[in-house]
Amino acid sequence: MIEIQNVTKEFPGKTAVKDLTLEVENGKIFGFLGPNGAGKSTTIKMLTGILPVEEGRIAINGFDISKHPLKAKQLIGYVPDRSDVFLRLKGIEYLNFIADVYQVPTKVRKEKIEYLTKSFGIYEDLNDHILTYSHGMRQKIVVSGVLLHDPEVWILDEPLTGLDPKSSYTLKEMMREHANKGNIVFFSTHVLEVVEQLCDEVAIINNGHIEFRGNMTDMKQQFKDDDNLEKLFLELTQDE
């Protein structure tokens, strides 16, 4: 379970997140939506321990991200919204480095690397430097690295950006399979059709506050029956 309790995050001249409370149960694909500047990325960065939690509490499966950061982070697989990291490493070097960090045994990592990179169509490119990869290939190598240690909680920030249709479909299938095993997939996206297809629950954040939280049926019942998600999203965030 992800628990966010009364979290506030302030930057000079701005309150990015204000008294935010949100819980995500196991077995869910949870969509986290919001316009630019709404507090979405700030929340994700606190959830993953990149930004400190200065007011409130965040816990991953019972481990407080501030008090037990290593234990909490071991449970997380995080795909950031930027994939231009470790560019001077070869693909296989990067994946082995990530496997070393999470102490993935040699036999297991070999099988996982082969499975993931073949699934995303980059197996033949592992001996090339990441610097030579296209944006989509970089996204695939980052996603492969994140999934190597089989984390219980996936936190994905715009994970489908740059992926070709086949790889996008593969990742969406993996997300569904992961949630069906009783785990959590928490992801942000601007692709509203994906939200309608995948999400068990949705939260929309705007101006640092949660404007809506529920499933797609709840959302559509709250508004006009003939409205699609894009219209609902625009209505919920019209005060941006």
Automatic annotation (TrEMBL):
Recorded GO terms, molecular function?
Answer: ATP binding
> By its UniProt entry, which Pfam families does this protein fall under?
ABC_tran (PF00005)
> Which segments constitute the ABC transporter domain?
2-232
User: What InterPro entries does this protein's entry cite?
Assistant: AAA+_ATPase (IPR003593), ABC_transporter-like_ATP-bd (IPR003439), ABC_transporter-like_CS (IPR017871), ABC_Transporter_VariousFunc (IPR051782), P-loop_NTPase (IPR027417)
Name the keywords, alphabetized.
Answer: ATP-binding, Nucleotide-binding, Transport
Gene3D superfamilies on file: P-loop containing nucleotide triphosphate hydrolases (3.40.50.300)
Q: What is this protein called?
A: ABC transporter ATP-binding protein
Q: Which organism is it from?
A: Halobacillus seohaensis
